[in-house]
Write a structure and sequence with these properties.
The complex is a heterodimer of chains A (207) and B (203). Chain A is mainly alpha-helical. Chain A is built from eleven helices and no strands. By secondary structure, chain B is mainly α. Chain B has one domain (19-189): Orthogonal Bundle (Multiheme cytochrome fold). The radius of gyration of chain B is 24 Å and the shape is elongated. The chains are: A mainly alpha (207), B mainly alpha (203).
């Protein structure tokens, strides 16, 4: 089938004037990239992430409801992609490729299609996200939260002291701000207990 | 020179090939990617607040230290978040409107000194207020989902006034004006209603 299409295109392009072929290619290029971009935007929306598979809808999205990133004083929110999809182009494309793994789990292995299976894997899944965030110095947090633009006078005394301490100890956002949008896994180590090769940090900032 | 042009013309009129199609495809993608990247760059604080001195010395300087610049959480709204539409079509329309900015910058030099800017401040503010009132503060609402505001975390005064604002059909900018730039002298956004509403209600 594809070979027949290629043959058809080859025949058409050989029988048409070069300028027309070039313009058709130009238009096709715009349409293709436009579709790819639109797909990336659509698959990075809350409407898609939180409702498309019941794995997300019944577990993580449900737990997110009512947390500080969902509902707060100003109504400024962070939804699924803000924390879990990189904003830098290259890491974004890599993460989107990684979504093939999600399709595998959804259609083939059915790895978290019941609440029980999800709960059994909660620590593992949480650890995976924590390590990713520790590795890139909480890049997705920092995409919205600009540390230099935080007004410490508007923060509580406790927050002020702890932020200063964390900076000195070279900790990153997720080390303390974990389980703020989803239930905390029980029993296992938290982000601070997890070992991350800090020499990977500069690489992690890219990937 | 003419010879090579003729040769090029002959090639273009002559039959193409799947290779020519591939070249067109690549050019189309590069073109689209460039336009998209430019749109992203032209929306950045780095560009808006720094590229012309008109913005830099006036609006951007006034914005420093306001609640949308520094605050408790460090979550910010920069120039484009409030002043560039986020939906596709209004976004493109606004980007085309940039020609008006070029005209003012290069040709008429309409606000190239502090004095000229101050003289036009009310007119410019009013233009933005009317735009925001007409689209029900669409750009505010892109970040602030009123359905996801927690009234219990707001002050009692804010809670009460939001209720009143909703009952009276007010929009964000009616009260939250001059929060990122210096307030001009003259009627504010709410007073602009009176003039607009006068005609239909007098019948």
């Amino acid at each position: 089938m594809p070979r027949r299409i290629v043959a058809k295109v080859r025949k058409w392009s050989a029988g048409t004037s070069a300028i027309v072929v070039l313009l058709v290619g130009f238009a096709a290029g715009i349409v293709m990239l436009g579709l790819a971009g639109t797909t990336l935007v659509h698959t990075s929306s809350e409407a898609f992430c939180a409702t498309n598979c019941h794995e997300m809808a019944t577990n993580v999205a449900m737990e997110f409801k009512g947390t500080i990133h969902d509902k707060n004083r100003t109504g400024v929110r962070a939804t699924c992609p803000d924390c879990h999809v990189p904003n830098a182009p290259i890491p974004l494309y890599i993460r989107k490729m990684g979504a093939v793994n999600d399709l595998w789990g959804h259609y083939i292995t059915h790895s978290i299609d019941t609440r029980e299976k999800f709960e059994a894997k909660r620590q593992l899944l949480a650890e995976r996200v924590w390590i990713y965030m520790k590795g890139n110095d909480s890049r997705e947090c920092r995409h919205c939260h600009t540390v230099a633009k935080m007004d410490s006078d508007k923060q509580s005394d406790k927050a002020k002291v702890r932020h200063a301490k964390a900076r000195k100890e070279k900790m990153t956002c997720i080390d303390c701000h974990f389980a703020i949008a989803h239930n905390e896994p029980v029993g296992g180590p938290g982000p601070q207990e997890l070992e991350v090769d800090r020499s990977l940090l500069s690489r992690g900032a890219i990937f | 020179m003419f010879k090579s042009l003729k040769a090029l013309r002959a090639r273009l009129v002559g039959p193409g090939s799947i290779f020519v199609l591939g070249v067109g495809l690549a050019i189309g993608m590069v073109f689209f990617f460039s336009v998209g990247s430019f749109m992203v760059y032209a929306n950045s604080e780095e560009f808006c607040a720094n590229a012309c001195h008109e913005m830099k010395v006036n609006m951007a300087a006034e914005y420093k230290g306001t609640i949308h610049d520094t605050n408790r959480t460090g979550v910010r709204a920069t120039c484009n978040d409030c002043h560039v539409p986020h939906e596709y079509i209004p976004n493109y329309a606004a980007k085309l409107g940039l020609f008006s900015d070029y005209w003012g910058h290069f040709v008429t030099r309409s606000i190239d000194t502090k004095e000229k800017f101050e003289a036009k401040r009310y007119e410019l503010a009013k233009r933005v207020w009317v735009y925001m009132k007409e689209n029900d503060s669409r750009e505010c609402r892109h970040c602030h989902s009123s359905g996801r505001m927690d009234p219990e975390k707001q002050s009692e005064k804010a809670h009460r006034r939001h209720e009143k604002g909703r009952a009276e059909g007010l929009t964000c900018i009616d009260c939250h004006f001059a929060i990122a730039h210096t307030e001009p002298n003259g009627p504010g956004p709410q007073e602009l209603n009176a003039a607009a509403a006068a005609a239909p209600t007098t019948k």
